[in-house]
Design a protein that fits this description.
Pathway: Lipid metabolism; fatty acid biosynthesis. This protein is an alpha+beta fold and 163 residues long. It has 2 helices and 12 strands, in the order H-E-E-E-E-H-E-E-E-E-E-E-E-E. It has a 4-stranded antiparallel β-sheet, with helices on one face. It has a 4-stranded antiparallel β-sheet with strand order 9-8-6-11, with no helix packed on it. Strands 1-2 form a two-stranded antiparallel sheet.
Length: 163
């Protein structure tokens, strides 16, 4: 290893901590110290496999076939799928944290009932300490806001309905 040994170890530990904080699975970076002196680091982690949803409970009525009872989780999943397929849904283009206003205490970019134009900022998604303004893909009226300020959002998740 180079003469930067202690600083390199601290840097690698910071990268590992960044993985934990952001729930990323991999980071790869290179540091250039000089013409023939560099450090290349790739830090990865295994993400736990998602647990399968509980099996639906079935009840047998007297002299009748078993009937599957819907669960609240299944109903919530169906509702989320319906919102994602809505023609006016604005889906998240990235994983990150949603902010509905530019800074705490300032007014929200939009609220339910607001008329928006194509390209108007709807909200901000923070990803990797970068604030990304999310523009409206179309003109219309904000019918529903499906995310809360400061909440995490996944890629492709519906965030708003604009009709």
């Amino acid at each position: 290893m180079t003469k930067h040994h202690d600083a390199d170890i601290a840097f690698i530990r910071q990268l590992a901590e960044l993985l934990r904080e952001t729930e990323l699975s991999e980071i790869e970076v290179a540091r250039e110290y000089g013409e023939d002196d560099q450090l290349r680091v790739r830090v990865t982690r295994q993400l736990a496999a998602p647990t399968p949803p509980p099996a639906p409970v079935t009840y047998a009525a007297p002299a009748a076939a078993p009937v599957a009872m819907p669960t609240a989780e299944a109903d919530a999943g169906d509702a989320a799928d319906a919102l994602a397929r809505h023609p006016g849904a604005v889906a998240s283009p990235m994983v990150g944290t949603v902010y509905l206003q530019a800074e705490p205490g300032s007014p929200a970019f939009v609220k339910v009932g607001d008329a928006v134009t194509e390209g108007q900022t709807l909200l901000i998604i923070e990803a990797m300490k970068t604030m990304n303004q999310i523009p409206s893909p179309r003109a219309g009226t904000v019918k529903r806001i499906l995310v809360e300020d400061g909440s995490p959002v996944e890629f492709g998740a519906p965030m708003m309905i604009i009709e």
